Amino acid sequence: MKNTMNYDSYQKLMNKNYRVAIYCRLSKDDDLKGESASIANQKALLEQYCEKQGWEIAGIYQDDGFTGLNQERPDFQKMLAAIEHGIVNLVITKDLSRLGRNYLETGHMIEDYFPRHGVRYIALNDGIDTERDNNDIAPFKNILNEMYSKDISKKVHASYYLKATKGKFTGCIAPFGYMKDPTDKNHLLIDDETAPYVRMIFELAEQGRGVNYIAHRLEENKVPCPTWWNRNRGFRNIYTKWEKTDPECGKYVWDFSVLKDMLRNPVYYGAIASQRFNYKFKIGTMSEKSPDEWILVENCHEPIVSKEVFDAVQKQVSKRKMQRLQGDGNYSIFAGLIKCGECGKTLTVRYTNAKNPIKIYACKTYNAHGKHRCTQHRIEYDALYKQVLKEIRSCARKALKNEDEIIERITSSKAKEYATKKKVTQEILTKHEERIKELDKLIIQLYADRVAGKLSEDNFNSILSNAQKEQEELKTRIRSSQKTTEIEEEKIKNAKQWAETIKQYADIKELDSATLHKLIDRIIVHEKIDDEGVRNITTEIHFNICMAAPKLEQPA
Predict the structure, then answer these.
(1) What is the DSSP letter of 175?
(2) Out of 177-181, 212-216, 453-457, least confident range
(3) Which of 104-142 are b and which e, b meaning 16 or more Cβ less than 10 Å from the residue's Cβ?
(4) Tens of pLDDT along 465-479?
(5) Does residue 556 sit within a domain?
(6) pLDDT tens for each residue of 54-66
(7) What is the domain count for the chain?
(8) Do 278 and 371 fall into the same domain?
(9) Burial of 257 per CB tally in 10 Å (0-12, 13-18, 19+)
């Protein structure tokens, strides 16, 4: 398209006081491109250009080793923060692919995010400048960048698969207890500093100890968690949530999922288990495969524990799992309903250690990590049972006595909640519909460019397929959102039906799981400790129709 900007407008644009963010990115895939794609070269090129234009450089942001398929890049996020604080009003990259390779996200940045924040964007080598009428090619480049990344992804995963069949280690960081062989990064060596802790973990597990017990022993012995070791050795700059809360003590808190994964990982008896997860392009890891789907190659490196110990631990893990499934009280009727009002975790059922044990619920975080992470939120099973039973009866009798009042409460509560949800949903729907219109225009332009000979048949078919696929995905999301809206509206209309249903429970004598899950949405337990150290427990019972019952006080 011909540039329609006149000379006066161009001069005015060039004389504007710009505060420039230079953004550079290099991923592992870009290593193949050689020195021309390096961070240093990108930075030098863009600094030279800004100096020539007389623009002020407000900041230089660079992400080395990060994919362009998503926006979860440290310096990219810092740049967005600078934009939102008004520090930056021009973003410049070497080319469009440096900004990103996900054509949906990159298109949103150029067409929505930057204009909405008053930011000009330039992709220097691609000749893209959002302040000029020369950006028709940008959508095509976005799609081609993503196609390139998808092709690279296939090649990389094919390479990983081949290495997996040969028993090669392909992870970025060696498993806890091991280190990468300096002469062969695909081979593991025992790390003498951390391997003793691995043996300790397996010994405790072989004795029948669960991950809760093991985590406590590691914390008592002040054994730093794997995240700390990796950060201390310069492999990662990541902190666990416990370290962020309490840097001194948090490094000794082990996550249960880490311990569970260690106890199941064949690497510790000398095997390499690969291809353990289902992966999808752009989405990443989706789910874990079952062990029989893994690629397992044995005798790949020196073991930390014997195969016999590893197998014994697997039996103990299975045994503990069956005990949880079959033990008394494990199928609690409140399972999945009762939550901690402070940390949001589940309250789990257990028995007090006494001659006459009492069945209680307590916060999962407290049980696992103690009072410095959350308070106990203790509530006796029998007391909770009575409270819930009483509240169901109360609501049922109110419905019998004054059905109109109950219906009004339900309708008012639900309508208020629905109005908030509807506003958010409508904003999302509007964006989806606008994007579909943009894709319609893109498809029309595609046909025009194909007829004019500007696009090869292969590129035309590929871009058209992606555009049509995106349209279908957006239409599916719209239909799903509309269906959800209809369901919410139906709930409001069916308030009378719910009132009729609850009446049946006016004289209910016993609770069961089916009844609770039919009537109750969630039970929230709060705990506050006053100045004298007295615990005050407050329970909120929320019905499925979003009508919260009054808060019920339970003496500590």
Answers:
(1) P
(2) 453-457
(3) bbbbbbbbeebeeeebbbbbbebebbbbbebbebbbbbb
(4) 878 888 888 887 777
(5) yes
(6) 999 999 999 988 8
(7) 3
(8) no
(9) exposed
